[in-house]
Specification:
single chain; 271 residues; 12 strands; Alpha-Beta Plaits; two-stranded antiparallel ribbon; alpha+beta; 9 helices; 24% strand
Length: 271
């Protein structure tokens, strides 16, 4: 395939590219069959800003392949491969969510995208350092999985410490809710499926910014291996919409993290 000259590239519309980043840089040209095949081969080499950007680029690329009569069987298989590498059996989920994201968006406007990128970078670094794997990043939340519950707790603590380091645009205070839950979900080609996934999400969204909340299943798994200075405080039993049984929840306390929070959100104390 002959290289695309700068002048020719500049004359192409935005729709001729599978990926355009937040700075307007256009990647993966898909205006003809040869470039579509090249984009399919190079897709895995592109550093996307987040999973949502990758999903949009993948969809545009697959539509272009269909338009040019290309059957991207190898590409589809390679895109599913990361799901096959996720751990099976009993796993621990870690979910994060940005507190007050709508207000932050209103204050920061076009700076919010770079803030979100920085938050995801900090979360990913902590997850990777602790040996976890990111499952997805959509909107303001991120979802990771760990084979060992203690590693998930290690990552949660590292994330909150990284968030407290600051350095946010406009001097804003950015806080994450973190929820931890352990279960045995089913792993399919599209990700994890099961009640434990929903429970993990409910626990995360019940927390407040700066808080780490875990279920009793995680507490049982980490209790004998807590790091010095880390303790678990009972928050009681709570009922969540869509979950058949109440969940015993615990707050992770550490001397260098926030400790005082209002009652949990979106949950009802169990009687």
């Amino acid at each position: 395939m002959p290289p695309l000259r700068a002048k020719e590239r500049a004359q192409l519309p935005d729709s001729a590219f599978a990926y355009i980043d937040s700075r307007g840089k256009r990647r993966l040209p898909i205006h003809d069959a040869a470039h579509v095949r090249n984009a399919l081969a190079r897709f895995g080499q592109v550093a996307f800003e987040d999973d949502a950007a990758r999903d949009r680029a993948r969809s545009r690329l697959l539509r272009a392949a269909k338009k040019h009569g290309i059957m991207p069987i190898g590409f589809i298989s390679s895109q599913l491969e990361p799901q096959r590498k996720l751990p099976k059996g009993h796993v621990t989920f870690l979910l994060t969510d940005i507190e007050g994201s709508t207000e932050l968006l209103g204050r920061l406007d076009d700076q919010y995208a770079s803030l979100l990128t920085d938050v995801r970078r900090r979360v990913r670094a902590a997850v990777r350092q602790a040996g976890g794997r990111e499952v997805s990043a959509r909107g303001d939340d991120q979802f990771a999985v760990f084979e060992r519950a203690s590693a998930a707790l290690e990552a949660a603590l590292a994330i909150q410490r990284a968030m407290q380091a600051g350095g946010w645009p406009g001097g804003v205070d950015v806080r994450l809710r973190i929820g931890l839950h352990r279960g045995r979900p089913e792993l399919t080609d599209t990700g994890y499926v099961g009640l434990s996934v929903h429970a993990a999400a409910r626990i995360c969204f019940a927390a407040h910014g700066g808080q780490i909340v875990m279920s009793s299943a995680v507490r049982t798994a980490v209790l004998e291996s807590l790091a010095d200075g880390v303790s678990l405080r009972s928050l009681g039993r709570w009922r969540f919409r869509g979950l058949p049984e109440p969940v015993d929840l615990f707050q992770v306390d550490a001397a260098d993290l926030l400790a005082d929070f209002p009652p949990l959100r979106s949950a009802v104390p169990a009687k």
